[in-house]
Design a protein that fits this description.
The chain is of the alpha/beta class. It has a seven-stranded parallel β-sheet with strand order 7-6-5-10-8-11-9, with helices on both faces. Strands 1-4-2-3 form a four-stranded mixed β-sheet. Helix 1 packs parallel to helix 2 and helix 5 runs parallel beside helix 9. The termini are far apart. Belongs to the class IV-like SAM-binding methyltransferase superfamily. RNA methyltransferase TrmH family. InterPro entries: Alpha/beta_knot_MTases, Ribosomal_eL30-like_sf, rRNA_MeTrfase_TrmH, SpoU_MeTrfase, SpoU_subst-bd, tRNA_m1G_MTases_N. This is 23S rRNA (Guanosine(2251)-2'-O)-methyltransferase RlmB. Keywords: Methyltransferase, Transferase. It comes from Paenibacillus illinoisensis.
Length: about 250
C-alpha cells in the first residue's frame, strides 16, 4: 500500500483538521507533552492508532526533517485538477488567483510558496509532473501545514495549461529579472491572474516566458540582482493581495 509521511506538530495538526486520511501517528518517547497532547487528543477522537516509539525510529523514517517527535503515516497526497481550482474561485465569487511553478525543484521552496499562497488567498498552485518538486513530508513541514489547504495540481504540459487558462480569461503574469515592467502598481493583478515563478537557477523556460501576457520584475537596489524563488514569489503574491484589497 502506498503511504506518505507527515512530520512536525503543525503539519500533523493541520492534516488532522483538514480531514486527510491518517492511518497511524508515531510519538517519540522524548517528545514534549505540550506539543503532543492536542494531537493525541484529536487522534483519539478520530480513532487513529497512536504508537509511542524511540525517537531514532522517527529520525530514520523522515531523515533530515525536524519532526518534533511527531510523525503521521497518511494516505497519498491527493492532487487537484486545474478545473477544481478554477471552480473553487468561482464558488467564492472571486477572480481566480493561481500560482504556476515552472520547474521549482527544491521542496523547501515549494513548501514556502504553499504557505504564502495560503496566507494571500491564492486558490491553488500548478506544477509540472516532470522536473518539479512534489508534495512530500519536507514540503508539508516547510509549509507549516498549508499543504493541506492549498490545492496543488500536477499537469503534463505547463504550456498547454497556460493556453487553457487564457481561454478561461486568466491573465498570465511571468516574473523575470530582465522584464521592463515593475511588479508594483501596474494594475494587472485585480482580475483573474496566474503568476508564473521560474526555476531556482534558470528562471522560466523560453516557451513559458513567451506565453506570458506580461512580464514583471522586482526592483533591486543592492549588489545581488535576484531573490530566492520562494521569497520573490511571496513578494509578488502579496502585491496581488494588496492590489485586490485596494480595489475593494
Amino acid at each position: 500500500m502506498e503511504e506518505e509521511w507527515i512530520a512536525g506538530k503543525h503539519s500533523v495538526t493541520e492534516a488532522l483538521r483538514s480531514g486527510r486520511t491518517i492511518n497511524k501517528i508515531w510519538i517519540a518517547d522524548t517528545a514534549q507533552k505540550h506539543l503532543t497532547q492536542p494531537i493525541i487528543a484529536e487522534a483519539k477522537k478520530l480513532g487513529i492508532v497512536i504508537q509511542h516509539v524511540d525517537k531514532r525510529k522517527l529520525d530514520q523514517t523522515v531523515p533530515g526533517i525536524q519532526h518534533q517527535g511527531v510523525v503521521a503515516q497518511a494516505a497519498p497526497y491527493a492532487y487537484a485538477e486545474v478545473e477544481d481550482i478554477l471552480e473553487a474561485a468561482k464558488s467564492k465569487n472571486e477572480h481566480p488567483f493561481l500560482i504556476l511553478l515552472d520547474e521549482i525543484e527544491d521542496p523547501h521552496n515549494l513548501g514556502s510558496i504553499l504557505r504564502t499562497a495560503d496566507c494571500t488567498g491564492a486558490h491553488g498552485v500548478i506544477v509540472p509532473k516532470r522536473r518539479s518538486a512534489s508534495v512530500t513530508a519536507t514540503v508539508s513541514k516547510t509549509s507549516a501545514g498549508a499543504a493541506e489547504y492549498v490545492p496543488v495540481a500536477r499537469v503534463s504540459n505547463l504550456a498547454q495549461t497556460i493556453d487553457r487558462l487564457k481561454e478561461e480569461g486568466v491573465w498570465v503574469v511571468g516574473t523575470d529579472v530582465t522584464a521592463q515592467e515593475a511588479v508594483f502598481g501596474n494594475g494587472v493583478f485585480t482580475g483573474p491572474v496566474a503568476l508564473v515563478i521560474g526555476n531556482e537557477n534558470k528562471g522560466m523556460g523560453r516557451l513559458i516566458r513567451e506565453k506570458c501576457d506580461v512580464l514583471v520584475k522586482l526592483p533591486m537596489q543592492g549588489q545581488i540582482n535576484s531573490l530566492n524563488a520562494s521569497v520573490a514569489a511571496g513578494v509578488v503574491m502579496y502585491e496581488v493581495l494588496r492590489s485586490r484589497q485596494a480595489q475593494g
